[in-house]
Specification:
single chain; 512 residues; mainly alpha; Rossmann fold; Serine Threonine Protein Phosphatase 5, Tetratricopeptide repeat; DNA Cyclobutane Dipyrimidine Photolyase, subunit A, domain 3; 3 domains; five-stranded parallel sheet; two-stranded antiparallel sheet; 22 helices; 7 strands; binds flavin-adenine dinucleotide
Length: 512
């Protein structure tokens, strides 16, 4: 007898959810692989395997805890056209009198489930994951309004009493950015941790994906290195606090061509565990603050840099997403239309920084934040790439890419397609930034000091082309306008030569 059918989506693997606090024989949990989820964008093979493996592991854990669970594979759901069709079939087959689901974090699934018509009553539960409750979001975020992360972050620090001394921030400063954001020194390279990688076998899942002709990008050699259950996620958290947190803030913006483990540096790689809800954001923040209290190597600047990402940015981008959906998905402030070059899917470019960021993405389904924002994102921004295509690339390629977090980061932070709802300026940079933050330029075919000529770093002329294209707007932005002073002071012929070179780069983008 099934009284209640409960749906668990692939990013709802939250073992601490109140649903599981009681065992009830009359409740049947459904964890289902679905063709619609493999095909709404072309995903990385590691992302497909990661989600399916984590869902299977979650179903198994629930069953071991005494819950009734049905784990359905792509083979079992092949005839269900989509998620609503599967639910209708399951309700009818089981004779359930009630259907329940946790509110999805993606607008796409949220709309699908809210529109679902069933012959039995439906109830929606909270996913019990985020720090800010869903119904509180309108108090902090309004559609079409420009918000800023810093005041939001301070409110969150106070509310959750994280790194506070009474009403004041610990150390009397909210922000340690000035101490952080350094390029890697040779000494720092010696401290770079060996990333903790797992060896989760996914051959059966791969075979299933192939059997159902699921198209994908990227590669997977052998086992899956990403955590697929709570204990692996906790091990990754412990590993981060011990081996990377002491340097996290200082080097969070660093780039490296040659350092060992340059794909992970001092980053946590916890985003997949967090976004699938195998870890709760507060437990991650607590683990970091406990490490700060107990480990002399972890300074306030390091832990604050990390807490800011979770308590601040992560919750902030979610607020921007929900306040502005569905319009956010089509915003294109700069009316950008260009296609991304084909080498975004192969990494075959002569630009060392882009080659490495794309290769890391293809090899690991991961690139760290600065690679996403200041390398691939910056390039897409400078060339005027269509945000729809940029969004699809980011949504497909990263193991942690779920629309609520991917879209505001891509459209908002990186492409400024929302016209500044999320960020106060476009994150546009020339080769000088890349050179300052790492050693790519020393190993590049292009010369970072040149703006014109066949060896000139394309980012230099493209940067000025972008600035010149949008000068009317950007020259009035207080965070950017000073760069125009230097530009306007250059002789007209020099400016034109730079713009001509940028045009040459755009015309020959596939060969850069
Ligand atoms: C263009 C672009 C696309 C992005 N797409 C995604 C995405 O699809 N999914 C995703 O989780 N993050 C995304 N980010 C944010 C960030 O780059 C990733 O969260 C981070 O690189 C994940 O690696 P990590 O776990 O090692 O992070 P760390 O550097 O170790 O940071 C710790 C944690 O902080 C959180 N965090 C850090 N920065 C952000 C941010 N800007 N927004 C939200 N959370 C943040 C993440 O949960 C992350 O795990 C994107 C950023 C950009 C610029």
């Amino acid at each position: 007898m099934v009284r209640t059918l409960r749906l668990i989506l692939g990013d709802q693997l939250n073992l601490q959810h109140s649903w599981y606090q009681q065992r009830d024989e009359a409740v049947l949990y459904i964890v289902a692989e679905l063709k619609q989820e493999t095909g709404y964008v072309r995903h990385h093979i590691q992302k497909l395997c990661g989600f399916f493996a984590a869902m299977e592991a979650f179903a198994q854990t629930l069953a071991e805890q005494g819950h009734r669970v049905r784990h359905l594979t792509l083979d079992d759901t092949a005839d269900d056209q989509d998620l609503p069709a599967l639910i209708r079939r399951m309700v009818s087959e089981t004779g359930a009198c009630q259907f329940e689901y946790q509110r999805p974090d993606e607008y796409r699934l949220f709309s699908q489930l809210r529109a679902l018509q069933l012959p039995v009553p439906t109830a929606e539960a909270d996913s019990e994951h985020f720090l800010l409750a869903f119904n509180e979001l309108p108090e902090h975020f309004r559609a079409g309004c420009r918000h800023r992360m810093e005041p939001f972050y301070r409110k969150m620090r106070k509310r959750f009493d994280v790194l506070m001394a009474g009403d004041k921030p610990l150390g009397d400063k909210w922000n340690y950015d000035a101490d952080n954001r350094q390029a890697l020194s040779e000494d720092a390279c010696l401290d770079l941790p060996v990333p903790l990688c797992f060896a989760n076998p996914v051959d059966t899942i791969r075979a299933r994906l192939a059997r159902h002709q699921v198209d994908h990008i990227g590669q997977l050699q052998g086992d899956l290195l990403w955590p697929i259950n709570r204990s692996q996620s906790l091990a990754l958290l412990t590993h981060f606090c011990r081996h990377a947190l002491p340097w996290f803030g200082r080097y969070q913006d660093a780039l490296s061509e040659q350092a060992p483990h340059n794909w992970s540096l001092f980053h946590s790689r916890l985003s997949f565990s967090l976004n699938t809800k195998m870890l709760h954001p507060l437990e991650v923040v607590e683990a970091a603050t406990v490490a700060f209290q107990q480990d002399d190597r972890v300074s306030l600047a390091q832990v604050e840099g990390f807490v800011r990402q979770i308590l601040g940015w992560r919750e902030y981008v979610r607020g921007i997403y929900w306040a502005n959906m569905p319009d956010y998905a089509t915003c294109n402030h700069f009316a950008a239309r260009r296609a991304l070059p084909g080498w975004f899917w192969t990494g075959e470019t002569k630009m060392a920084c882009l080659r490495q960021a794309i290769r890391h993405s293809l090899d690991y389904a991961y690139a760290h934040h600065i690679q996403r924002l200041m390398i691939t994102g910056n390039f897409a921004l400078l060339i005027g790439a269509n945000p729809d295509e940029v969004d699809a690339w980011y949504l497909g390629i990263y193991i942690d890419a779920i629309e609520w977090v991917e879209m505001p980061n891509t459209r908002g932070m990186s492409q400024y397609a929302d016209g500044g709802l999320l960020a106060s300026k476009p994150y546009a940079a020339s080769g000088a930034y890349v050179n300052r933050m790492g050693d790519h330029c020393r190993h590049c075919r292009y010369n970072v000091r040149d703006k014109t000529g066949c060896h000139a770093c394309p980012l230099n002329s493209l940067y000025w082309h972008f600035m010149d294209r949008h000068d009317r707007e950007l020259a009035t932005n207080p965070r950017i306008r000073m760069v125009f002073r230097g530009w306007d002071d250059r002789p007209e012929a020099e400016r034109q030569a730079i713009l001509d070179h940028a045009q040459w780069c755009l015309d020959n983008i596939e060969t850069l």
